[in-house]
Specification:
Aminopeptidase, 357 residues, 2 domains
């Protein structure tokens, strides 16, 4: 088992994102951009190398008593080899505990049909409730060779018709993306106002659907960092009169594109029912053009139960929506934590709760 864990050196930082974001099985939450963003909001990033692979750890000290907690966000990555992922996590955890950390949490996107879960549970990790919105996800397999027509044909007939209807209505999709050519993206000077519009729609949608969303400062911090690094692009759907009716952000990592945040104006849903589907189809076309193998539609699992929703549950409608785009359910292992010092861990959580109040 590899115990070769060390702080990253300048040479490691030069190739960091190429190895843990862009590599197959990578994730943007292991990027240096994510580290800079989280540092602004109270986390202490530790850029480590385990078994010669970069691992980003976010650490937060307890108030007044020493020690602290650590979170390996969507890592260690890449996860192409679940056995190696487990070994790296265990090695990093031992190193962190030796540095005074009391609890280590991690949630790499590893399939539940692998030996990863058993390996880390045998070493003392236990399953916990998710730190991210969902445990499982829904994927659309993208064909090699850029055959977008085959992807479109796999959509349900209703979805195809709504996309065509949106195009006939003159809806256009604007692209905020530092990796796109000048002809395909909006100018950088127009990005701030479009991001403000997008955030307004996201906030309205979050209130309507009763889910949480970060504040505007947090949204702007991460979106700006990720755009600059090329890890994120945003799409905005507008009418011919330049009225924004829907928008979303997407992550690039490994061989996939992930559907991150999305929203649509409630007062425009009846007039433009195909806006959200047109937006997702354009995002898939970008993923296909870039040679990605997977379009990750995100999760819809039932909170608390963390299973596939059934008819009658609130999440079931979103499941049907994503399945209409050709998505299939992917069962993942989920979040786990290792508690090394239970008493200080409990005391630290209580003191943090008191301080927040």
């Amino acid at each position: 088992m590899p115990d070769d864990v060390r702080p990253a050196e300048p040479a490691d930082l030069e190739t960091w994102d190429a190895r843990v974001v862009e590599a197959p099985g990578g994730h943007v939450y292991q990027s240096r951009a994510w580290a800079r963003h989280r540092e602004r909001f109270g986390w202490r990033p530790r850029l480590l190398v385990a078994d010669d692979v970069p691992v980003l750890v976010l650490e937060r000290p307890w108030r007044w008593i020493g020690g602290g907690s650590a979170y390996v966000a969507r890592g260690p990555a890449p996860v192409a080899d679940p056995g190696a992922t487990a070994r790296r996590l265990l090695a990093v955890s031992r190193w962190l505990v030796g540095q005074g950390v009391d609890v280590v949490a991690a949630d790499p996107e590893v399939g539940s049909d692998t030996a990863y879960g058993d390996a880390i549970r045998a070493a003392g990790f236990r399953q916990i409730e998710e730190l991210q919105p969902s445990r499982h996800r829904i994927d659309v397999d993208l064909p090699p060779g850029g055959d977008g027509e085959a992807v479109f044909k796999a959509f349900s007939s209703t979805t195809r018709n709504l996309i065509r209807q949106a195009e006939k209505q003159g809806l256009v999709v604007l692209r905020l993306d530092r990796r796109a050519g000048d002809a395909d993206r909006v100018p950088s000077e127009a990005e701030p106002s479009l991001l403000d519009e997008l955030y307004g729609i996201l906030r309205e949608t979050a209130a309507r659907r009763q889910f949480g969303i970060a504040g505007p400062e947090t949204f702007r911090s991460w979106t700006t960092e990720a755009l600059e690094a090329g890890h994120l692009f945003a799409l905005s759907v507008q009418t011919e009169g330049r009225e924004t009716v829907a928008g979303a952000t997407f992550y690039r990592h490994g061989d996939r594109v992930t559907y991150a945040l999305s929203g649509e104006r409630a007062d425009a849903r009846k007039a433009h029912p195909g806006a959200a589907r047109l937006l997702l189809w354009r995002a898939m076309e970008i993923a296909i053009a870039e040679g990605r193998r997977t379009f990750d539609l995100g999760g819809v699992d039932v909170r608390g139960a963390r299973r596939k929703p059934v008819n009658g549950e609130p999440e079931h409608g979103m499941l049907q929506f994503k399945e209409s785009l050709g998505g299939h359910w992917v069962d993942l292992t989920g979040a786990h934590e290792l508690v090394a010092r239970p008493r200080r861990y409990l005391a630290g959580r209580i003191l943090d709760r008191v301080a927040r109040r």
